[in-house]
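RECORD TYPE: inverse folding
INPUT: structure tokens
STRUCTURE:
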């Protein structure tokens, strides 16, 4: 072996060691930081419930169905309650969010009463979208919900309305 070949082999080894050292140095110089999150979801009981015809409705939706006659006012009383079954008070906003009742009805109202005193708290016109905020629904307190509906003489078919309760 001649000297040039030995020098070339040593140079290659030295170059390989230098490149390896650079790679290890670059990897060691990179700093990593970590953030973690631990989450918990607790499923409790429903805080506000619908009570229809004396039965507590499971879930968030109650279905109300009314059959009325043209031009004859009809009242539907004592059939629906919105009750706070939680241990603390809740603010609630009740909204008529959609309706097809419109001009085919002389009136179509939902009445919210204090279930304890029978005092009328608010009348919701089911013919138009509207909202009313109740400042506080106390623990074990309920709203009695009654309905008054009068279809016009020319009304026929099926109509719908949606009511939404948002509470915190």
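DESIGNED SEQUENCE:
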């Amino acid at each position: 072996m001649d000297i040039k070949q030995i020098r070339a082999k040593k140079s290659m080894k030295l170059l390989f060691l230098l490149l390896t050292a650079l790679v290890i140095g670059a990897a060691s110089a990179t700093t990593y930081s970590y953030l973690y999150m631990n989450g918990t979801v607790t499923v409790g009981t429903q805080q506000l419930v619908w009570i229809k015809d004396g039965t507590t409705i499971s879930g968030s939706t109650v279905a109300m169905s009314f059959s009325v006659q043209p031009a004859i006012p009809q009242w539907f009383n004592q059939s629906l309650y919105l009750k706070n079954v939680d241990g603390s008070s809740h603010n609630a906003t009740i909204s008529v969010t959609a309706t097809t009742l419109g001009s085919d009805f002389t009136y179509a109202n939902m009445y919210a009463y204090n279930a304890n005193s029978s005092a009328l708290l608010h009348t919701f016109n089911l013919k138009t979208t509207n909202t009313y905020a109740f400042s506080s629904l106390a623990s074990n307190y309920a709203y009695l919900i009654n309905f008054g509906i009068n279809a016009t003489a020319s009304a026929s078919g099926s109509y719908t309305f949606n009511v939404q309760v948002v509470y915190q």
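NOTES: The longest strand covers residues 74-84.
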